[in-house]
Structures are given as structure tokens and as C-alpha cells.
Amino acid sequence: MEITDLISPAAVIPNLRATSKKQALQDLARRAADITGLHERAIFDVLLERERLGTTGVGNGIAIPHGKLSSLDRLHGLFARLERPIQFDSIDEQPVDLIFLLLAPESAGADHLKALARVSRLLRDKSVCEKLRGTDNSEALYALLTESPASRAA
Q1: Is 66 labeled as catalytic in the residue annotation?
Q2: What is the pLDDT of residue 108?
Q3: pTM
Q4: What is the DSSP annotation of the chain?
Q5: CA dist 8 to 19, 35, 67, 130, 135, Å?
């Protein structure tokens, strides 16, 4: 599974303005509703429900909120670079400035886990994160996110 299977250029937000975790999730739910055609509240509720199980702030300024919705037909991703870092109850207690939202159909099973692993692998790469933090250009962010791992290694 590649990142290009999850996001489109329209699913990249270069300067999300949010002052809290809740506001960031609300804004992301609104944007995801536009992309998926689902109701914003349904997306927000599933994200909040997942956060109650434990934070999706994985450390190093990164959060990967995710959830499953029965009305989805495929996996959808949304990437946001925050204008200013926000508290996200991250495991390392550091503020978050890069968020990759992942939504999956209820039936996704292993595909959901593979997508989470793929996103996590990408955002564990410090050089990728430095580059993501270094630009607020939507096209450049999309290119950085979807660049193949082989070409990054060169």
C-alpha cells in the first residue's frame, strides 16, 4: 500500500490553524467530510472515540488520528501541517505539528493496519518530517508525502 492510495493533492492542508486537539480534529473532520462525502459529525465522533482509547499522538510532533466508518468504501487519508504546534496528549508530551488522519471502512481489517504502518513508517523518517515542516506549499507537501521510499534513499 502506497501513500498515493490514501491521499490526493486536495487532501493536503499546508497551514491548519488550530489551538487545541479538539479543534484540530473538528477541522480535519470537516475537511474529511468534503473528501469522503460522509457527515462531518460522524467522522468527528469516531475520531474522539478512538482518542478516548488512548492518544494517537505518537511522539516527535506527530499524530495519526484514525477510525473506521461503515459507510466508507475505501481508505482515505488527510495530511495537515499545523501553523503552530498544539498539545495533543502525545506519548512524549511534546506538542504536535504534523497530523495524518486515516479513515477506513469497517471491513478494512488488515488493510487498515497496513495503512497505519505505512504512514507511521513514513513519519518516523526524521528527514521527511524536517522537509514537511520546512514548507507550507501544498504541492510540495504532497510530493514529499508520496515520494517513493527508494528515491528518498538515493
Answers
A1: yes
A2: 86
A3: 0.93
A4: --GGGT--GGGEEEEE--SSHHHHHHHHHHHHHHHH-S-HHHHHHHHHHHHHHS--EEETTEE--EEEETT-SS-EEEEEEEEEEE----TT---EEEEEEEEEEGGGTHHHHHHHHHHHHHHH-HHHHHHHHT---HHHHHHHHHS-HHHHH-
A5: 26, 9, 19, 21, 18
CB 65 within 8 A of CB 101: yes
pLDDT, tens only, 88-135 = 999 999 999 999 999 999 988 888 899 999 999 999 999 999 999 999
State the CB neighbour count (10 A cutoff) for residue 118. Answer: 18
- The amino acid that residue 66 corresponds to is H
The dihedral through the CA atoms of 137, 143, 145, 151 has a sign that is negative
How many Å apart are CA 109 and CA 95, to the nearest integer?
30
The Cα–Cα gap between 129 and 144 comes to: 9
CATH class belonging to 3-146? alpha beta
Cell of 26: 473538528
Set 39, 66, 76, 112: catalytic member:
66
